[in-house]
Design a protein that fits this description.
Helix content is about 70%, strand content about 0%. The protein has helices at about 5-35, 40, 55-65, 65-100, 105-115, 125-130, 135-145, 145-155, 170, 180-190, 195-200, 205-220, 220-235, 240-245, 250, 255, 275-305. Helix 13 (about 220-235) packs antiparallel against helix 17. The longest helix is centred in the first third of the chain and has 32 residues, at about 65-100. The chain is flat, with a radius of gyration of 25 Å. The protein starts with 5 loop residues before the first helix and ends with a helix. The mean pLDDT is about 85.
């Protein structure tokens, strides 16, 4: 039941306006700061009226941080992570909902528990795996004696190694598995009637055909919602790209490049007062792609989230 009274309506609008102000005012100040000269921005208090230096500041920020390559890297990382999460989560949820096997719920809860282990908590083991993605298989081969057996038979001792550091693959692969996506798909798949599965079986559809031709078309809005969430998650990543990329001119991302606009004492920039107008212009450049994605995907995003609540 939805209660509609003038007082509640007024309170609702007041809360909405307060929320809008909390979100909008800082963004407007960033925009205003990016349109001022360095002298104007260092004269307190900062006003709410934009200046006329926006284009000059955008060009200076683009040049200093070399945003061309870094925006491409960020886009590849965000699309790769979001696309990988959408695909892997759909397959995982499909197996959990439509197949009956021992330990099914244990597998689900083990996946669900990983929600409490964000990347920042497992950053060290994740880095170790990225340094040699085949290292776990090497340990298994050493443990079961396969390495020694091959060495005895062939005289060659093999070593498995796949270094993901300083690569776009390393930016993407360690982030593609997600419990959030699996849970989102699982909740949606559980709303589908059993008659749909029975009808597909009567028409001769196997599991892969049922997944490809029935489940995926029905999950378009969920896929769009998950893609949007994970695109923003991957685009805003700072710690992981900062940790695994030492060659930032080739593999750095746009978010980590913002740090190059802030002078730090003791490095090549020599320290000093930050050019906040240039830094804020850099922020506008970095937030433009995710804002565009959210604007384009907004309708599907809302539908996808609502559909999971059925």
């Amino acid at each position: 039941m939805i209660e509609r009274t003038p007082v509640l309506n007024a309170m609702t609008h007041v809360i909405l306006l307060m929320g809008l102000a909390i979100v909008f005012v800082p963004m407007w100040l960033v925009f205003v700061a990016s349109t001022l000269t360095l002298q104007q921005i260092n004269e307190p208090p900062i006003g709410f009226v934009p200046g006329d230096q926006l284009w000059a500041n955008l060009v200076e920020a683009w040049t200093r941080a070399d945003f061309g390559v870094k925006l491409v890297n960020s886009m590849i990382m965000a699309v790769g992570v979001a696309g990988g999460k959408v695909l892997i989560s759909a397959i995982t949820a499909f197996g959990l909902v439509f197949f009956r096997f021992p330990g099914r719920m244990i597998v689900f809860w083990l996946i669900f528990v990983t929600l409490m282990l964000p990347l920042e908590v497992r950053i060290v083991p994740t880095y170790a795996v990225a340094a040699n993605a085949l290292g776990p298989f090497q340990i298994i081969a050493d443990t079961i004696g396969l390495t020694d057996l091959i060495e005895t038979l062939s005289g060659v001792r093999f070593a498995l190694e796949w270094n993901l550091l300083n690569s776009r693959t390393g930016l993407i692969l360690p982030l593609v598995a997600t419990a959030t996506g699996t849970f989102l798909y699982r909740q949606f798949f559980m709303t589908l009637p059993d008659e749909l599965v029975e009808a597909a079986k009567m028409d001769g559809a196997g599991p892969l055909r049922f997944f490809r031709e029935i489940l995926l078309p029905l999950s378009v809005t969920n896929m769009a919602a998950l893609f949007t969430i994970m695109f923003l998650y991957a685009w805003n990543q700072y710690l992981w790209p900062l940790l695994i990329t030492t060659d930032r001119a080739a593999f750095g991302t746009a978010v980590t490049a913002l740090g190059e606009l802030i002078p730090r004492t003791g490095d090549s920039t020599g320290g000093g007062t930050p050019d906040w107008n240039i830094a804020m212009a850099g922020c506008l450049i970095v937030i433009a792609p995710p804002l565009l994605v959210v604007a384009l995907m907004q309708r599907f995003f809302v539908r996808g989230l609502v559909a999971t609540e059925k």
